[in-house]
Amino acid sequence: MDKRIIAFYLPQYHPIPENDAWWGKGFTEWTNVAQAKPLFRGHYQPHIPADLGFYDLRLCETRSAQAQLARECGIEGFCYWHYWFEGKRLLERPFNEVLTLGEPDFPFCLAWANESWSRRWLGEEKEVLQEQTYSFEDDANHIRWLMRAFADRRYLRVKGRPLFLVYRPNALPDPPRTTDLWRDQCVRSGVAEPYLIGINAHCPLLDCRTIGFDGTLNFEPQLGVLPEPMNDRPSIGKLKRNREFGVNSPKLKLYDYAKARQWMIDHREWMMHEGICQDFPTVPSIFVGWDNTPRRRRNGVVVLNSTPERFEQGLAQLVNDTRAKSCAERLIFINAWNEWAEGNHLEPDLKYGHGHLDAVRRALSMPKLNNSAREIVSSGSQSAGAARERVPLI
Length: 394
What we know:
Layout: E1 4-9, H1 17-23, H2 29-35, H3 60-73, E2 77-85, E3 88-90, H4 93-101, E4 108-112, E5 117-118, E6 128-130, H5 136-150, E7 157-158, E8 161-166, H6 175-188, E9 195-199, E10 215-217, H7 236-243, E11 253-256, H8 257-273, E12 285-287, E13 290-291, H9 293-296, E14 301-304, H10 308-321, E15 331-335, E16 338-339, E17 344-345, H11 355-365, H12 384-387
Parallel strand pairs: 1-2, 1-15, 2-4, 4-8, 8-9, 9-10, 11-14, 12-15
Antiparallel strand pairs: 2-3, 5-6, 7-8, 13-14, 16-17
Helix pairs in contact: 3-11, 5-6, 10-11
């Protein structure tokens, strides 16, 4: 395949006993989505699903409809978030049924979301609900379970090797020991070595090849490079930025999509230029949008102006940038297929309909871009110079 577009997939749309106990009977991701409210004039909330409605992932019809939508716009497969806690799995039913039923006939891979669950929705180790722990014995048990998925004919591969991602690679107590064990166990069992990618969401300076992985996913959004993303208190800086959007609030955290993405790109380039980190190859990703106020209310981060056109422009650039790679390695990850409570979804909603899906299709069919088309900031937004404003290292 010429371009390999893979979308992260959240399986949080069905009730489980743990969420019933922690959040209330019947809780799913839709609980947060449905109760969201606009916090300022023009704030797009709540996000209401269109074609698929408020679906339940226990239904095979829903999973098949999702796969069909993704296939039609050129997405090669889903990357299911995989929740493993020393043998205990959470939100496992949708993928279990995909695996056991053989449906939908649509490629997939797994990404281990190896962090504790907490009440803050930010991966912080506070008010922990389900702790993430590690052991060498569990590494062996984990890969034995994973090999069942790797053996499926639909499993996504790179150079013939099953693709497996780890969200927090540097959280592993001894990453080389873990990755060596996984490869060794697969080879001993007659399974191809997994192609292991570490995600740099929380370790942006890390070349994951140095700790035993085959590559690094440059994850978006890197919210940490934005001004004051973790500051929940009022500030003059937030007030000034928010007034650019006509919002007179010193507390809300509002950012422009194109400018935010440019900050993320420039931040990495700045770190390399300053010698803070060395350049190394990464697998690119792009986020669709971001608004986690359904989860965090007034303490959430809101990225405005994340239109299908702006998303398309960024994705088209990533497609263009992968042309120099071999076909098997032309991977691009989209975050995300269905992160509805983060305002981050390709799935159709009532505002944009199929807009973001159509953007994927068009980006994949676009001719090679010339240098004059490389600017991410679309016409009608700030000037390129303003968009490239430097943000201090946080």
